[in-house]
């Protein structure tokens, strides 16, 4: 794999980053936290198969942070 290819892959988030997220986050942020690529994340959300609760607000997707943290085992 070339070095420039690794820059395009999603990077995970640290525990500290996850615990400072707002009440809901965009799908890109949630994908990053879960280690999902952009296309796969949007595909799962569109099919209703995203691994945690996703809200559809117009054309935008929002992920409930509490559900995301629960899925990752970081629920308060």
Concise description?
The chain is of the alpha+beta class. 45% of the residues lie in helices and 16% in strands.
The helicity comes to 40-55%
Proportion in β-strands: 15-25%
Order of helices and strands: HHEHHEEH
Largest sheet: 3 strands, antiparallel
- Can you tell me the residue ranges where pLDDT is under 50 for at least 5 consecutive residues? 1-10
| Category from helices, strands and their pairing | alpha+beta
Find the count of extended strands (DSSP E, 2+ residues). Answer: 3
The largest sheet has its strands arranged as 1-3-2
Explain how this protein is built.
The chain is of the alpha+beta class and 76 residues long. It is 45% helix and 16% strand. The protein is built from 5 helices and 3 strands; from the N terminus they run H-H-E-H-H-E-E-H. Strands 1-3-2 form a 3-stranded antiparallel beta sheet.
Key phrases:
76 residues; 16% strand; three-stranded antiparallel sheet; disordered N terminus; alpha+beta; globular
